[in-house]
Design a protein that fits this description.
122 residues, Oxidized Rhodanese, domain 1, alpha/beta
Length: 122
């Protein structure tokens, strides 16, 4: 990563809680959180955590005003492939007034390693 990107990620890490795949799975099992996948469409098609809503990271700001606006005060768990894009997306959501946002540390790759169920279009 470029130095500026490293600084952005580290700053976001200070503002956004990172949770483990196990913590995410427990929250989702209880129905206590919304799940947001911020990967690209091709990544989404190849596999995603069951129950996720898809909004690519580049569309977060637009979705915050539209499709995600009802989630402002809901717990939201954000994930990507490895946990970097989701951290930045969660930070953006927090800056837009979303009050309870976290990111899955290690992303969907860590989730798969921990046996979190994955569904796909294939």
């Amino acid at each position: 990563m470029q130095p500026d990107m490293n600084a952005m990620v580290e700053a976001a890490r200070k503002r956004v809680p990172e949770i483990t795949p196990e913590q995410a799975a427990a929250s989702l099992k209880l129905g206590n959180a919304k799940l947001l996948d911020v990967r690209e469409a091709s990544e989404w098609a190849s596999g995603r955590i069951a129950g996720a809503t898809h909004v690519p990271v580049g569309q977060i700001e637009d979705a915050a005003d539209a499709s995600l606006s009802e989630w402002k005060d809901e717990p939201i768990i954000v994930y990507c492939a490895h946990g970097v894009r989701s951290l930045l997306a969660a930070d953006s959501l927090k800056s837009l007034g979303f009050t309870n946002v976290s990111s899955i540390e290690g992303g969907i790759v860590a989730c798969q390693d921990q046996g979190v169920p994955i569904e796909s279009d294939e």
